[in-house]
UniProtKB/TrEMBL annotation:
The lineage of its organism: Eukaryota, Fungi, Dikarya, Basidiomycota, Agaricomycotina. Its cofactor is heme. Belongs to the cytochrome P450 family. InterPro entries: Cyt_P450, Cyt_P450_CS, Cyt_P450_E_grp-I, Cyt_P450_sf, Cytochrome_P450_fung. Pfam families: p450. The keyword Zinc does not apply. Pathway: Secondary metabolite biosynthesis. It comes from Suillus discolor. PROSITE patterns: CYTOCHROME_P450. Heme binds at C357. This is Cytochrome P450.
């Protein structure tokens, strides 16, 4: 296994030599769990090319921004929900935001959105527990284990069958519902509806089904994790929070809500989001790539089928690139005259080369909309204990493929009642 801990080497290998570094390790557990349809797991080849082409068609920068009203609507709901959030429900609120946003953009309005969301969440939970590298290694080393019924293994493994069942249901059901809505003229705009409005054969439809379900599985938790880290960061760094709010007030006026059209006038907010991704990249070890052929780099022999990981955590702590790296400092992404140094969404947190995250524009727009709405209406601060003393919080994160801040105490207060009234009125008018 090769672990890359430098941005330069990540670019040298995964980008400049991408033809050789773009497949994925073969994990037997993906097949057993029935999730080989998932774009993230696909080996390099024709099916992957078709998936990525479709992702590009439906989620590239220009298309992704055209869903701006949906982002705003969900961001407004999030703001109101956060007012009632507790230490233990913050994760749930942020996941509800990212999950329902992805679902709405992907499928439009489903008759039973709750059922889709709860089953998709269940699928993700089971998948996370069953497809870990150590479990994949166990089945590769001892293939006879596959002959045993899954319940023998207990724990999450006993749920492999349920995982397959959920995949089958969620692959077809929402897609077929949108198809029926198109036939009776009730479909709202969505990726699937846009896709179905053009002519496609069955193969094309299966790819769209896979892309649609992958979007939820790949995007829900990552986006929610960044949102939680954003809230933690602006609570711990109140000067950053005040400066971002002042920038919004100045650019859009005290009574209006910021929207994606205002983005170019809010460089500091973008710098904050880039810094959140750098400060604690949500997938600190990325997703494993694998080599298709032998290679030699800088005198080192790298064999075919080697697993190649990018240690994003190490990249984020590179003191040459990011002096005083553990400090949360959005200004490092700005020029001296306050402009963004990088204007494109090309952050290492989204990966490298031909497998770079194809949902990055969508994630970026969703995160921006939520962050802008939160800052425009709410202030997050440390909570106080029963004696009125501030409860200190250390920035601690859990471990896993996708990490989250550990639950932390906080308090929200409304800082702009006009905007709050405005978004409540918008929500009630629907
Ligand atoms: C802040 C949120 C997100 C982060 C940090 C993130 C990060 C990543 C990373 C690190 C990878 C692996 C890249 C590599 O192998 O080099 C990836 C792959 C992927 N992401 Fe995201 N992602 C996010 C949101 C999303 C969203 C919202 C979607 C879709 C709606 C999405 C869809 C995908 C897909 C399909 C892949 C697999 C691409 C492939 O294997 O070719 N992601 N993402």
């Amino acid at each position: 296994m090769i672990i890359i801990s430098s941005e330069t080497i990540a670019q040298e290998l995964l980008e400049k030599r991408s033809a050789n570094y773009s497949t994925r390790p073969v994990l037997r557990t993906n097949e057993l769990a029935g999730i080989t349809f998932n774009t993230v797991m696909l080996p390099y080849g024709e099916t992957l090319r078709q998936h990525r082409k479709l992702f590009y068609q439906v989620l590239r920068a220009e298309v992704s921004i055209s869903y701006h009203e949906i982002y705003s609507r969900h961001a407004n709901e999030l703001v109101i929900n956060l007012l009632g959030a507790t230490r233990d429900s913050l994760q749930q609120h942020t996941e509800a935001y990212s999950g329902s946003l992805i679902m709405t953009v992907t499928y439009g309005h489903l008759a039973d959105e709750g059922s889709f969301l709860s089953r998709a969440h269940e699928l993700l939970d089971i998948a996370k527990q069953t497809i870990t590298p150590e479990k994949a290694a166990m089945f590769t080393a001892f293939p006879f284990l596959e002959k045993l019924p899954f319940w023998c293994f207990g724990g999450a493994f006993a749920l492999m069958g349920r995982c397959r069942e959920l995949c089958e249901q969620l692959f077809d059901e929402p897609f077929n519902e949108v198809k029926a809505q198109i036939a009776d003229g009730t479909a709202s705009r969505s990726l699937v509806a846009d896709f179905l409005s053009q002519a496609h054969d069955d193969t094309g439809e299966d790819i769209m089904k896979a892309v649609a379900l992958t979007g939820y599985m790949a995007g829900m938790e990552t986006t929610a994790s960044v949102l939680q880290a954003f809230l933690l960061a602006i609570m711990l760094y109140p000067d950053v929070q005040s400066r971002a709010r002042a920038e919004i007030d100045q650019a859009v006026g005290h009574d209006s809500m910021p929207c994606l059209d205002d983005r170019a006038s809010l460089p500091y907010l973008d710098a904050i989001l880039r810094e959140v991704l750098r400060w604690n990249p949500p997938a600190p070890l990325g997703i494993a790539h694998a080599t298709s052929n032998d290679d030699v780099y800088d005198g080192y022999f790298i064999p075919k089928d080697a697993i190649v990981m990018v240690n994003q955590w190490a990249l984020s702590r590179d003191e040459d690139m990011f002096p005083d790296a553990s400090r949360f400092d959005p200004s490092r992404h700005l020029t001296v005259d306050g402009k963004l140094k990088e204007t494109v969404v090309n952050h290492f947190a989204f990966g490298h080369g031909r497998r770079i995250c194809p949902g990055r524009w969508f994630a970026d727009n969703g995160l921006w909309s939520a962050a802008a709405a939160i800052l425009a209406v709410l202030r997050i601060d440390h909570a106080k204990d029963s004696n009125g003393d501030r409860i200190d919080v250390k920035p601690e994160f859990n471990t896993g493929l996708v990490i989250h801040p550990e639950p932390f105490h906080f308090s929200f207060e409304v800082v702009n009642t006009t905007r709050e009234a405005h978004i409540r009125a918008m929500m009630n008018s629907r």
